[in-house]
Amino acid sequence: MPGISYRRDDAWRVGVLFSRTGFMAVIEDTQLRGTLLAIEEINAAGGVNGREIVPIVYDPGSEPAVFGHLAKRLMVEDQVTTIFGCYTSSSRRAVIPVVERLNGLLWYPTLYEGFEYSPNVIYTGAAPNQNSVVLCRYLLENYGRRFFFVGSDYIYPRESNRIMGDLVRRQGGEVVGETYVSLRAQRRDFQPVIRQIRAASPDVIFSTVVGDGTIYFYQAYAEAGFNPKVMPIASLTTTEAEIRAMGFDVGEGHITAASYFQTIEGGQNTGFVSRYHKRFGDDEPTNACVEAAYFQVHVFAKALESTNSLDTDILRPMVLGTEFDAPQGRISINEASNHANLWTRIGRANRRGQFDIVFRSQDAVPADPYLISAGWGFMAGAV
Amino acid sequence: MASPSSPVFGELARLDILVAVPPDEEGTFLVRELRRTRASVRSLWPLPETLPDTSDVIFCELASGLPARLPWVPGNARAALVGVMPAQFSGDFDLLRTSAVDAVLHRPLTAHAVMTCLIIAWMRFSYERRLRQRIAKLEETLRAVRLVERAKAILVAKRNLNEDDAYRFMQRQAMERRVPIAVIASAIIDSQAILG
Fold first, then answer.
1. Among A125, A150, A256, B78, which is least packed by CB within 10 angstroms?
2. Which residue of A171, A373, A376 to mutate against B (max B Cβ within 10 Å)?
């Protein structure tokens, strides 16, 4: 992607922070692509009110502290107010103080553990009521009540497991083991995890391992000879991108809950997938994080078209309540929480590295990041 | 010097500024300097009993009795407040505390001092307002959680629902009526209080 950092006086300049290097590059690089694809589409159609969107792209190299420093550079030196970026919760939390103090707007296109509200963040990934709640019920009904939790050792997995643990126990399930590996875990670090799983013999494994660790973990599982038909790994973060990196045969049969899968039929998704393939290659799958990174730029552009100003105090009120026909279906930005109202889906990975969708909500699910309505079980599902 | 296109100037240009200082040479200078930011500036003198409440920033003479003239209570300011030191100051420094100014401008006025005070006062005030907004949202959330839990307990006891069905009931009501679930919970609690 040449020439992604240049200046032009009459352009809308925005910041972009996704890691292209380090242990989070597998997924964050796809979010960068989703962001750039949307920007290219908007510019090809004449920009926003006749002005191009110009991204200033930095690579934080998977280091949370660097995200904070680069957010500062974007807002102080490059003088942008809008930043698209962040995958891990640690990186989001490094950027928030900067955008809050300097009144920027961070667009965060990643599912996360919820329980947060910043007036300076638009959250476009799923909150727990939009994925964990339904996933938990599905696993209990289809695989059994004994859960084993494996996570990377940082905020998202620990918080996410606390929520999942509550859900599991409330529905009569049991957590028979919980273990964490370093974010920088290597292949060998998963051997002790495999031994613990073998000893505990759970019905289902809930994984919050992210980054390269995901690939090592699923591969270690396959090498151990476990069977996904009876003891699958379920996840919120294992997308088409990770499945492709670990191997289609390794990923087959495992379960992921997400708002979006590439296999969604019709609507905006057909065109989105074909444009993505055309731009980045036929063997590059889309995924939920790409899709959120993609649609949030379009939501931004739609609001900017009305305000004709990047000033956060003017732009934010226009963003709230905006509806958009995203590849996942019609979404909107919830005015009460700054989070997106998103679809809930559950997919089972097939031999082609894609997900067969086994559950879909009837409509977009209102974001409830604090789980105030303890919002689980209320949705009637349809497949 | 930041370029005229830098974010701070864009922000200042949108401000509504009230200047409540004597309209002498320095008062005129102050108004002129502030207008250079392209903000909308109006002046007002003598000090009214209560200052109007419609500006983003108020430059006000630090006169004794100022706290009583402010249209808000301390801790709930609705504009950034810059105190302008009188040439003959009484020495009542407690005024800075009781009127809770965001910045102080000293005479004789200079162009740089005016800009500095405007920017510092506005940035501090608007950041504080964002933080207050965040706190308000968190408090609202805590209240909502408490209401929903109490309403759930009532539904479980009176309607013979289990916990999940109680949540589901409130969720459905909230979605049908398009109101936050806390509103439904609150209505359940109120009707329980009346009906017993």
1. B78
2. A373
